[in-house]
Specification:
heterodimer; A: alpha/beta; Rossmann fold; seven-stranded mixed β-sheet; five-stranded mixed β-sheet; 14 strands; 35% helix; B: alpha/beta; five-stranded parallel β-sheet; two-stranded antiparallel ribbon
Chain lengths: 337, 328
Amino acid sequence: MAMLTIAEALRQAIREEMQRDERVFCIGEDIGIPGGFGCAFTVTLGLSDEFGHERILDTPISENGFAGVAIGAAMAGLRPIADVQYGDFLFLMMDQLANQAAKMIYMSGGTIKVPLVMRAPVGATARGAQHAQSLEAFFTHIPGLKVLVPSTAYDAKGLLKSAVRDDNPVLIFEHKLLYGSKGSRTEKGALSPVGEVPDEDYLVPIGKGVIRREGSDVTIVGKLLTVYRALLAAETLAQEGIQAEVIDPRTLVPLDKELILESVKKTGRLVIVEEDNLTGGWAGEIAAIVAEQAFFWLDAPIKRVSAPDTPAPFAPVMEQFYVPSADRVIAAVKSLF
Amino acid sequence: MTALLGETQNIPLLDLYKTMLTIRLFEERCNYLFMQGRIPSTLHLYIGQEAVASGVCALLRTDDYITSTHRPHGHAIAKGVSINSIMAELFGKVTGCCKGKGGSMHVGDIRVGMFPAIAIVGAGIPIATGAALAVKRLGTDRVVVSFFGEGASNEGAFHEGLNMAAIWDLPVVYVCENNLYAASTPFSAVFKIKSVSERASAYGIPAEQADGNDVIAVYQAAERAISRARSGGGPTLLECFTYRQCGHSRSDPRTYRSREEEEEWARLDPIKRLAERLLAENLATDASLEVIKAEVIANIDAAVAFAEASPLPEPSDTLTHVFYKEAS
């Protein structure tokens, strides 16, 4: 059992899966260039030395193109782990993800496998509006895609390994402030959680959430960075006598609805925290599910704590305003009592 | 001076004739069924372009892959997808090649190497590149063919897909069916160059050009390109000049082109041309071609009967196959 960052845990998962299965390979920009970055956040650093450049395959700057290449390779028998340097670049490959990968299995009447993994860093990190977005909700809206959001090193390794072995297209969103990237790729203000990660093979099942902190008075659902904001808020609230239960769904599609519903039925209150913009976000969907299926257990309105409906700003003071803080979570919880 | 067909070695002339005729009569039957309201939705018919799919696919093995377009019936027939299952798909029946989930624009059958047809223009090009990456990495000698129209070569996906195939020397042939019109937009309105194949040099790959209404010319050019791909020589851009004799879709009145132009191309009809040459060189007789035609018509009659007799999907079948499950 080693203590690893999320970037290290992802790297270990990729290494183990590539050792286990010859068909697994990585494809993306700047992932294996000698002297290069090893992905924008160092996840594939050093892997091209181990596996060679055919299996750590660097592409031209052609996001739509290499997404299509990964999909075609997946349909013809390989198991690609593709990545974009910043999640925002997924918009360049929307046709391939939304029209091709997500629909091939359906259009074939269930006869084709598309074992594609697409990794994407998200989150606002002082880079301005085009390297900051939290895009998970877009992809939860497209049937045919699985969407994962690991927030710990243990989950990052276990979920990535499950994704590689899945015969469906899987998107994995990773938060820049959680990677723990080192050297010149260190992020200012990063949380970089380090966690125990077994050296041996293990899987985290797709579709199972976890309770990060038990509580009886209010349910707070977060994902990625906002899980940590929720946990921080819960500590302060506990000092004031409010016991918050913090849920990390880990997987957005398929969603562990039961875990959230059971918690709300216990606490009677729900706050959803996410870094995405408010309108049309994932928080609204969780609110709708709970309103439809657990309305009579609620003692107070459901609250969403999200980024405002603006692009991500640059100036750190504005960015801190934009990304939901623990203080905003605390205020939202208190408004329910 | 055109070489005598009898001197062209090993070209399966009568098979090519039968494939082209199957596509033509299948499409004409589809149009008839559409006009009668028995096929829902629109159709993009392949009438006039039969020589391209037939000539290229005659050189492919069942385990070779193709990607196709919104106009895929001809590619599917030539690649060996059963016409019963294609017709059933057009009827929206559960016995269709996509179980009624695809429709006209997504026909395919992975068992014979055809991915579901891709109806977003140009999107199949990088997917074909990726399939070629896989067959190379897996150490097979399969090849991949990507069919698309000249309009698709103005998509970014064309540029990105060809460039990656070029830098990785992948076993793929990009077959551009230049039928002069992207829906209603003429070639000259959207190209400064004279032919799409000029673009091959931008990626450092070879180009082939063929008269796309001459199945022998298509076959011979495709043979060079496919041999190059299969033997490790990398990708080729093969441009076939042809003409869509019908409208873009069933709602197209073809008011953007002249009847004179259409008559000119009708004289170059690929099926008529092959038949005339077969007869002139005594490689077939009127009677032997009639025998082929009767067999093709019987097959299409059987396909329509199969489609009509097949059950509709249950409405709730909508909910299955969103994700892959073993033994689905």
